[in-house]
Every structure is written in C-alpha cells, then in structure tokens.
Q: What sequence folds into this?
C-alpha cells in the first residue's frame, strides 16, 4: 500500500462576505440607536384652536413657550422671568422688527400669560404673535359668524341712559366710570 504524503494541503479560508454583512447589521443597529437618543423633542404644549387666522411667515422670530405648569421656555430652553427679560432685550436690540411668538398652553393660567406679555412690553416688544392650532370652534354644522349672530352690545338698555355707558348701581342716574385696564389689574377709579 502506497501512502501519498505529498498531497496538496487545503488552506483554511475565512469567508469575509458573511463577516461584512454581520458588521453592517451591527453598525446599522448602533446608528439607529444613537439617533433615537439624540432626537430633539418639542415642548408638549396644548395650544388653543382658532377658527380664523392664517399661517404667517415671519422673517425674524423668537419662540417663547409657556406650558401648563407655568414654566417658560425660549427656543426650547427653560428660563426664569428675569432671564427672559434679558433674552428679549438682547433679541430686540439685534432684531428691532423681530416678532416674538408666544406658545401658551390652553390650560396655562391667564395670569401667567399676562405676566409674559407684561415682560415683553417692558423690554420694548410690541410685535407679539399668539400661536394657535388651525381648526374650527365647536359650532353646529353650517353656522357661520355674521354680524347678525354676534351681539352688538353687552349692556342691557335702561330707559333714560345711553347704551355706551353702563349704569352705576349705587346711583342709577349717574353713569359709571369707565374702567381702565392695565396688565394684571383693573382700575375703576376716575
């Protein structure tokens, strides 16, 4: 019996194509996971709906958000009222015709909204837009707002008095002083 000792030895090979496939699958998994962790989320604010108005484009805008807890955000960064004042002052100095868009939550306090508007007014912000969600109010189908359906005056007529002035309950013959309204308070003194 003859043994062939000089037989060709097969070289061991590592299949590279399946290895590349596995590496790409792992790389894809890590890329998608990294994107999930760095995704920017908007601040959750429940804006009120408006039946009128149209989307508006602003050349220069600063977004101020007020959530239902009363927390204030400027461009998604939480700020206090004193820091908001400085930020708005800097913004209006750089953009004199800039617009501040106020995203106030539907459930936020009226006092908080007035406080923000007051801070904006103090720093010279006279261009403020209130953000709403486009939609219609809950009205019956087919009903529209027309001058005939809107009440013309909130006062009831009293004989001998004009409709322009409300009556004074302490003195029915004397007209009541006109209230002057300023942010946060109502002053009825003359």
A:
């Amino acid at each position: 019996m003859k043994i062939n000792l000089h037989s060709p030895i097969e070289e061991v090979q590592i299949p590279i194509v399946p290895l590349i496939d596995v590496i790409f699958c792992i790389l894809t998994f890590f890329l998608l996971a990294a994107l999930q962790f760095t995704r920017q989320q908007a601040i959750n604010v429940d804006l009120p709906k408006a039946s009128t108005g149209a989307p508006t484009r602003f050349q220069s805008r600063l977004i101020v958000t007020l959530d239902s807890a009363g927390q204030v955000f400027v461009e998604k960064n939480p700020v206090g009222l004193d820091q908001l004042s400085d930020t708005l002052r800097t913004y209006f100095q750089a953009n004199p015709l800039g617009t501040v868009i106020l995203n106030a939550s539907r459930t936020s306090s009226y006092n908080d909204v007035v406080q923000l508007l007051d801070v904006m007014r103090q720093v010279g912000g006279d261009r403020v837009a209130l953000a709403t969600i486009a939609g219609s109010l809950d009205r019956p189908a087919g009903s529209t707002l027309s001058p005939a359906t809107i009440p013309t005056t909130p006062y009831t007529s009293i004989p001998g008095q004009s409709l322009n002035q409300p009556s004074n309950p302490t003195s029915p013959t004397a007209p009541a002083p006109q209230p002057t309204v300023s942010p946060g308070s109502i002053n009825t003194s003359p």
About this structure: The first helix runs from residue 16 to 38. The helical segments are 16-38, 81-94, 110-122. The domain at 49-134 is CATH 3.30.420.270 (Nucleotidyltransferase; domain 5). The chain has three helices and eleven strands.
